[in-house]
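can u pls check wat happens w/ flavin mononucleotide
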Amino acid sequence: MNNPAESEKAEKKGVFKRNLVKMLAVGFIAVMAAPAPPAGAATNAGGKKVLTVFYSRTGNTRDLAGIIQAGVGGDIVELETVDPYPEAYRASTEQAKKELEANYFPPLKNGIESIAQYDVIFVGSPIWWGTFAAPVRGFLAGHDFTGKTVVPFITHEGSGLGKSMADLKALCPGATVLPGLAVRGGRAGSAQNEVAEWLKSIRLGD
Ligand SMILES: Cc1cc2nc3c(=O)[nH]c(=O)nc-3n(C[C@H](O)[C@H](O)[C@H](O)COP(=O)(O)O)c2cc1C
């Protein structure tokens, strides 16, 4: 390239390109380095600190929890037991029945240390023998819900909410318990409309 005018143009083009690359790189690093929100600081539009906590053996309650959290914001925690329940349905129902009769709560892998920072706690569970699954009963029994708003959501195969509302009130004395949502297990993943209406009715939508 002998023509100086052309080489000047080419050089300017090169400088422009290098500057553009630099600007993009700086922007990218700024985005990547943005601090993650501190745990427990997530709020919904109403300024309340919200936690969605649930247990799910086969995924239905997990699906419903995801839809609820998308609607209310805040943090979400899936409770997991140290020893998983049997995969076979019959074996799991037998174990669950024994645990319910003995009022036994299985150890959790990831219990929540404190719920102090939350105002509203959505508690999700499959219905087991007409009430909350044992891992969720253990979570409820392990914390003080005084002054909190607690909202149950349930997946089931016919029992609806069962005894869960009454059991929740007994396990969370001093809490305000709002009307729960019950969804058939197979429909949990497509319950967006039901969830939206329910959140509106309890005035907790985002
Ligand atoms: C141990 C056990 C007990 C159950 N008891 C009931 C019950 O009493 N009533 C009912 O409608 N469904 C009952 N079910 C069905 C579950 O509640 C339902 O399939 C639920 O959607 C499973 O949720 P998950 O996929 O989040 O584990 C039971 C299931 C299991 C494994």
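The pocket of flavin mononucleotide is lined by residues 56-61, 89, 92-93, 96, 126-130, 155-159, 185 (CB under 6 Å).
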